[in-house]
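Holo model, magnesium ion. Inputs:
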Amino acid sequence: MNMHSEREARGFPRGQASESEHVEDSPRQAAGSFNGKDAPAIAGAALKEPYYRPVGREAEVFEAAYRARMAVLLKGPTGCGKTRFVAHMAWRLGLPLHTVACHDDLTSSDLVGRYLIKGRETVWADGPLTTAVREGGVCYLDEVVEARKDTTVILHPLSDDRRILLVEKTGEELHAPDSFMLVISYNPGYQHILKDLKPSTRQRFVSLDFDYPPEDVEAEIVVRESGLDAAVAGRLVRAGRRMRRLVDSGLESAPGTRLLVHAAALMKEGLGPQEACEAAIVRPVTDDADLHKAMMDILNATF
Ligand SMILES: Nc1ncnc2c1ncn2[C@@H]1O[C@H](COP(=O)(O)OP(=O)(O)O)[C@@H](O)[C@H]1O
Ligand SMILES: [Mg+2]
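Output:
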């Protein structure tokens, strides 16, 4: 089941495959849909296709942005497929994926690199952004607004047509190769006003909107991800969509596709629908007794 291959889905190279193995089994050739002849598959690219069900023209826009050497911003609520999309696109383009989950304490050194003390020596260690710029590949900064403000200073010359990374501490000015792509994501509803992306930052990025997929597509995803029976998955998705509407009644974050997949996986393991959904959907999204009850009512009416 796909949930168990999360590391692969995120684009982590599997095992210790050698460089020649990667080149022979070019993921780009396997995809057959991308004809960027000047972008050979790079060692470290995922060999196995991370499953992604397109909802619109997002893959075409992403590919065009890659060929035009532009950076991409993915907007949308949590659990609606942004991370999976990036993993899929990196595979499709034959590029390694460097994912950074941003948080309040993340500084530009975490991205660019720092000197480490090893014995009596000081050695420079590249951060994930620098690695991606040196070697090529997709660098995905997940929830970028969470990171400290000093990171945007780094991202500006890299995300516009200069495509430069200034590594201040080593005095290097790195020019990103054509195979480098910067991708950032953010969840517009979730952050505080104070933590919004500045216009000067967001206007450097080609932007894609993500949302919960249409009902039939979401059911297809749940079936594919969990192996749950299609009829039961259909009911689960219908209940999930009704639960999302509780946002109007004060539910802080709506359950995304991720939570429906989680509930489906528990049902597949033999739990009843109510029990599975309470554990995988209801409790993770609310501590409020009234909202909990409202969600259970929806589930009891559905199953
Ligand atoms: N379009 C999609 N195709 C395939 N799986 C999807 C899709 N949308 C959501 N999912 C499922 O939902 C889960 C959460 O998606 P993820 O990409 O992690 O969300 P986000 O990064 O937007 O928070 C994925 O692991 C996958 O199981
Ligand atoms: Mg994500």
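DSSP finds 14 helices and nine strands in the chain. The first strand starts at residue 71 and ends at 75.
Archived with the compound record.
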